[in-house]
Design a protein that fits this description.
Length: about 325
């Protein structure tokens, strides 16, 4: 009996040393959100030690605007990189019962904490400085261009210079399109992506709404003359990154576009995944590329160069050299 009691006491001690259970939202939080004890004093101090600030996200199950934030904003690489570089992110369920320790040492449940802060909308995002003071607050969903402007404001310690309202009036980027772009080369549903002997390679676009990179891809990248012939050499389909459309994947598996994207570990939009005529994935792009690199990606797959030159950057160097030999200008950024 004494051994059993000792064993149980060890288990309890180990459990008390573990972070609290993961956030219970049914919406998937990005893997880079921190799992902490929700002691804000410690979270603020740890963030400050890493030269970051604390981002506190308030959400709830079944919230479509929470889903939009997590799936649209946090699928854009520039926003993800900026958030990870400058912030430690923690999540609070406005109806949750996990214990939160506030900056003054009081303990509250998540729902009590949210109520004390007057959180009325989800998602709401609070940004805390190095002393645990709220320096910016977003009540409700902000589309990516406005969300990124707030990130810049807090990361740059601009609260010392002007209000967030004044900053947003001048700093928010142009809004991205709320709709996915229609293109004549996109194959309409139903989508059976199994490859057939002698068929074309397959290019699969994963995009989201409010995606500036997606806008640029369609407005500029696909409009270049050099892309027209390249696009003709592919079967091209496009899916929303978290879409529910039923498809047949190249391996013959019946699934949905969103589940397939998760299986492929697609995290950013726009992403383009290339499959050879035999159904194997051979290359992928996971952020918008400038036109030279975009065309190079399609040529890399269309010519089968991936089979003999596994290093894409070496292929691009060779491609640039061939273009220059023909007297064509090579613009890597324009």
């Amino acid at each position: 009996m004494r051994l059993i009691l000792v064993f149980l006491s060890l288990l309890l001690a180990a459990a008390s040393a573990m972070p609290q259970d993961a956030h219970p939202h049914e919406e998937s939080l990005p893997a880079w959100f921190a799992e902490t004890f929700l002691d804000l004093r410690e979270d603020v101090a740890e963030a400050a030690k890493a030269k970051k600030r604390l981002l506190v996200y308030f959400g709830q199950d079944g919230c479509p605007y929470c889903r939009e934030l997590l799936q649209t904003n946090f699928s854009q690489k520039r926003i993800v990189d900026k958030t990870q570089r400058h912030f430690t992110a923690v999540a609070i369920n406005i109806w949750g019962d996990r214990e939160v320790t506030t900056m003054d040492g009081r303990t509250q449940t998540e729902k009590e904490f949210a109520r004390a802060l007057g959180v009325q909308f989800t998602p709401s995002v609070l940004f805390l400085d190095e002393k645990g003071q709220v320096v910016a607050r977003m009540n409700g969903y902000y589309p990516p261009h406005r969300f990124e402007a707030v990130l810049d404001y807090v990361a740059g310690h601009m609260e010392r210079k002007r209000s967030i309202t004044a900053h947003l009036r001048t700093a928010a980027r142009e809004a991205a399109s709320p709709d996915l772009h229609a293109e004549p080369f996109l194959i309409p549903p139903p989508h059976d992506l199994r490859r057939r002997p002698g068929g074309k390679p397959l290019a699969v676009l994963f995009e989201t709404r409010h995606c500036a990179g997606c806008d640029e891809l369609h407005r500029d990248g696909f409009r270049r003359p050099e892309m027209r012939n390249l696009l003709n050499g592919f079967d091209i389909v496009r899916f929303p990154l978290f879409g529910t459309e039923k498809i047949t994947a190249p391996d013959g598996r019946a699934t949905t576009a969103g589940d397939w994207a998760r299986r492929l570990k697609i995290a950013y939009s726009p992403s383009i995944v290339f499959f050879a005529p035999d159904g194997r994935e051979v290359f992928r792009i996971e952020a918008y590329l400038r036109p030279f690199h975009l065309a190079g990606s399609f040529e890399y797959v269309a010519t089968g160069a991936y089979a003999s030159e596994p290093e894409f950057q070496r292929f691009l160097q060779g491609r640039a050299g061939r273009l220059r030999e023909r007297g064509e200008a090579v613009e890597l950024w324009k």
